[in-house]
Design a protein that fits this description.
4-stranded antiparallel sheet; single chain; alpha/beta; 3 domains; D-amino Acid Aminotransferase, Chain A, domain 1; Dna Ligase, domain 1
């Protein structure tokens, strides 16, 4: 019998999304069990058992990623690969997008308020390393003074690397993908920290949905993700800019379809 291990996302890495993250993994597990697969739930930050065929993990903790790399080294397949998850740290994926000419807003990596780009307002001030776990990890700044204030808040928490990203006017569109087999996009409803409100009510600007699919797939492939999600900005002219990439989203809008597809590719990895 095929043995699949699942690892849930740590609650600290799932702000305001704990229930949704748990729901997608639970549904995947149910579908796998209905198909005759043995599913073993593994706790975060623990060693992976030796008799596991494939791992379906949502975890981002450093300790779990360490154990996932050890499992990979002995031939166990992991969705998503731990190195790809690490590349979803904001500073990493933004560099990867730049290196692969994938469109995103103008940005600069800064360390202090003295390095703020004067020509980049309004803007977003973001924690560079890791993921957004607190509302203050991402702040909107209309002026240089607001940007400096946001930088000071991050600095007070010991955050030394910061990203200043130019605000891009337009509609936020969320996208979700699984390899080459599933792609879905939609307008956001409730975000983790309600930052979507800055862009206002979607105007539903016309854009090429196939182009968004291809751009998102290019980004995911460059990072190494098979299960991914993210946010894009659609300008009034229909231009597409990627502003966020996520490993293993909760797929709330298409949970059943996504769970079935993830279960399918999980089993395919053992063949």
């Amino acid at each position: 019998m095929i043995r699949v291990a699942t690892i849930a996302r740590d609650t600290a890495d799932s702000p305001n999304m704990v229930a949704n993250d748990a729901a997608i993994l639970e549904r995947i597990s149910t579908i796998l069990r209905e198909g005759g697969v043995e599913v073993v739930e593994i706790e975060n930050n623990t060693e992976i058992p030796q008799d596991i065929d494939i791992i379906c993990s949502m975890s981002r903790t450093a300790s779990t990623l360490h154990w996932l790399k050890a499992a990979e080294a002995r031939g166990v397949k992991v969705l998503n690969p731990p190195t790809a998850v690490e590349r979803c740290s904001r500073i990493e994926f933004m560099k990867i997008l730049s290196d692969n000419n994938i469109p995103q807003p103008l940005y600069k990596i800064i360390g202090t308020a003295d390095e703020v780009l004067d020509e980049c307002f309004p803007c977003w001030i973001k924690k560079a390393k890791g993921w957004s776990n607190h509302k203050e990890d991402v702040s909107f700044a209309r002026t240089k003074e607001e940007a400096i204030g946001a930088i000071k808040v991050l600095a007070s928490r010991g955050i030394g690397q910061i990203i200043q990203m130019q605000h891009c006017h337009g509609d936020i569109v969320k996208f979700y993908g699984i390899g080459n087999s599933l792609f879905h996009h939609c307008y956001p409803t409730n975000g983790k920290f309600e930052h979507e409100a800055i862009n206002g009510t979607p105007q539903r600007y016309s854009f090429d949905a196939d182009k968004l699919n291809k751009i998102a797939q290019r980004a995911a492939k460059a990072i190494g993700l098979e299960i991914y999600g993210g946010d894009a900005i659609i300008t009034p002219q229909g231009d597409i800019n990627i502003i966020d990439i996520n490993d293993f989203p909760s797929f709330t809008a298409i949970r059943e379809e996504a769970a079935r597809e993830i279960a399918k590719i999980t089993i395919s990895k053992t063949e």
